[in-house]
Amino acid sequence: MSSGRFSIKKSVQNLRRLPARIRRSVSEYRFITYLAILGPGLIAANAGNEASGIATYSSAGAEYGYTLLWTFIPMTICFMVAQEMCVRMGVVTGQGLADLIRENFGVRWTAVIMLSLLIANAGIITAEFVGIAQASEIFGISRYITIPVTAVVVWWLVVKGSPRRVEQVFLFLSLIFLTYIVSAFLAEPDWEQVGREVIYPSVSLDSAYLFTVVALIGTTITPFMQVFVQSSVVEKGMDKEDYPVARADAFIGVLFANLIAAFIVISTAATLHKQGIKLEDASDAARALAPAVGEYAKYLFALGLLGASMLAMGVLPIATAYSLSEALGFEKGLSRTFREAPIFLGIFTGLIVFGAVVALIPGIPQIKLLVLTQSINGLLLPIILVAVVLLSSNEEIMGDYKNSFYYKILAWLITIVVSALSLLLIFSALLGY
Fold first, then answer.
1. pTM given for the model
2. Rounded-to-integer distance, Cα 312 and Cα 296, Å
3. Dihedrals φ, ψ of 428, to 5°?
4. Cβ neighbours, 10 Å, residue 291
5. Cα(229)–Cα(87) distance, integer angstroms
6. Is 218 among the domain residues?
């Protein structure tokens, strides 16, 4: 590892040298070890709760109240399995997902996948800048100030900062999502009904209802999350010894991210659903909350949107730069300088500039942009999931850490269902659009 990277193994070894009186108990020791490894899983999962995701969750709550909360149970299981397989591949092979795809499926397939990922992520990054603009305008700040400033701050953090500092900032942005929990409690929902809808769901066969279910599931798992979490595990220097804690990080990240998403649904269901308000984007939800709950809820919701957009705006170009650099065999890593990794940091910089410039264009068709990018992601997701299952089940690659027989069946079942729903969402969106 380069001098700029910090070693998890070294941190754990240092902890083991501490006197017994400091390590009061095994549980305390494990907690400290977890804090040393905490990061990739939590950041990757929360980056999925970006502007378009928040808009989807808000719309679901406003349109159908609490009746869609049951979907978070199967979504959480699917999300956990996908993230766990990528984390496991990262710690076992020491390679990113794009590296493994290139080595095992050839250059042509890799080129198609990476080109699709580049186009889709460029569109989503632009949408995140639009989300930042919408959130800042709720606070009375012009987008022509916030977009350039945010772009420069994120670029400076990643290019000039250390990997540890980048991760710390991303983790802090993840904590901003807690504002959605506060917003939900301010909305004073019917908690008994919330619990009833989770345990005993009232499922409808209405086409619009089913489309929303598909949209929720499709919003939860996106290709960039798998790329980012595996590359981050490799970047952080984790190995097989770190796997149990790295897996716990991935699971906790998924639980936290989906809990936040559920609270977004709850807050909008408790307020906007009663008023019959329909939403176009996440900023509409923040503005619409004010009459029902008060200005505090509006600003909390807007602050969450701002943090979510900033987190995704940082994670997406990094994930894209990782995947393209791995696929092309170029040097990569957050600890590298422009001289050491010009392609990696060049891709990151180019995506930031592209997203900021396009988002500043007056009247940018955000809905068209999201339909296009989500369609590309929807086509790409089945390919990524199939590759992940095949690679993580390969004994030559994974050895004793390959998918077990029953786990492989579960993984294939999830891949088939999620892929089918993702493709259904694309065709439904395009036909409706």
1. 0.80
2. 24
3. -65, -40
4. 13
5. 7
6. yes
Per the structure block, which two tokens stand in for 402?
A: 């390959």
Query: Alpha-carbon distance 183 to 282, whole Å?
Result: 14
* Residue 55 falls inside a structural domain: yes
Q: Is the dihedral of CA 304, 376, 314, 254 positive or negative?
A: positive
Tell me the pLDDT of the chain (433 aa) as tens digits: 343 444 445 555 554 554 544 444 444 444 444 444 556 667 777 777 777 778 788 888 888 889 999 989 988 998 899 999 999 999 999 988 888 988 888 888 888 888 888 887 888 888 888 888 888 888 888 889 999 999 999 899 888 877 778 777 887 887 788 888 888 888 888 899 999 988 888 777 777 787 788 778 777 777 888 888 888 888 888 888 888 888 988 898 889 889 988 998 998 888 878 776 676 666 666 666 665 566 677 777 788 888 888 888 888 888 888 888 888 888 887 778 888 888 989 999 999 999 899 888 877 665 566 656 666 777 778 888 899 999 999 999 999 999 999 999 999 999 998 888 777 767 766 666 4
> Any idea what the CATH number is for the domain that residue 51 is in?
1.20.1740.10
Number of domains in the chain: 1
Contact 330, 152 (CB under 8 A): no
What DSSP line would sit under 26-85, residue for residue?
A: HHHHHHHHHHHH-SHHHHHHHHTS-HHHHHHHHHHHHHHTTTTGGGHHHHHHHHHHHHHH
Tracing tokens 């269901």 back to the chain, one arrives at: 269
